[in-house]
Amino acid sequence: MDTATFLSTLQQQAQAQKTILQSEFLPLDDATLNFKPHATGWSILECLEHLNRYSRFYLPHLERALTATATPVPPQPVRYSWMGKKSLDLVNPVNAKKHKTLKHMNPHNSQLTTAVLTEFLQHQEKLLHLLSAAHKADLNRKAIPVEFFKLLKMRLGEAFEFLILHQQRHIQQAQRVQAPSLQPLSLVV
């Protein structure tokens, strides 16, 4: 896929994720946002806090990599490394397999407030800004350290796609948590 189409697709997905947060999660009360479907499950706020923790790591690295790009690069196809393909497969929402998260990225049983939503929206704005700036960058350059093993590097394009897919996966998880609370109570007489 060429760079322009790739970035345009990611921008549309990031914007859609922002819209979901604004329309589906912002109007909810604290009890609904903190509801857990079961003891080991995450609440809506825990799903979003998990994403905030990843954004706190990856967004500064993406910004530095884009700032380090001295001259615009001509359009070229986006390529994937073995590491990139594995990372993307791991977080792809189509992959229903559950994965254990790193301890410091796991917000389970955290005391969270609606500030999590505000922070997520700020991260989305930053991500959208970086995606716009990426049109001049070499998306095939290995520049972004992998969070769990910083010696490994992802390509710039892979890191953008990783963030978007990871967010999509956990936003869908948060939507599933919310779904039972949307069901009207029925009384059986």
Care to describe what's here?
- By secondary structure, this protein is mainly α.
- Helix content is 57%, strand content 6%.
- Strand 1 (142-146) and strand 2 form a beta hairpin.
- Helix 1 packs parallel to helix 6 (156-182) and helix 3 runs parallel beside helix 5 (115-133).
- The relative contact order is 0.23.
Poorly predicted runs:
183-189
Per DSSP, the total helix count is 6
| CATH level-four homologous superfamily name | dinb family like domain
What is the CA-CA span between the terminal residues? 58 Å
What is the total number of structural domains? 1
- CATH fold-level topology: Four Helix Bundle (Hemerythrin (Met), subunit A)
> What percent of the residues sit in helical stretches (DSSP H or I)?
55-70%
Give the radius of gyration.
18 Å
Q: Helices and strands: which structural class? A: mainly alpha
Shape: globular
Q: Proportion of β residues?
A: 5-15%
* CATH arch. level architecture: Up-down Bundle
| The first-level CATH class name | Mainly Alpha
Q: Helix and strand succession? A: HHHHHEEH
What is the number of strand segments?
A: 2
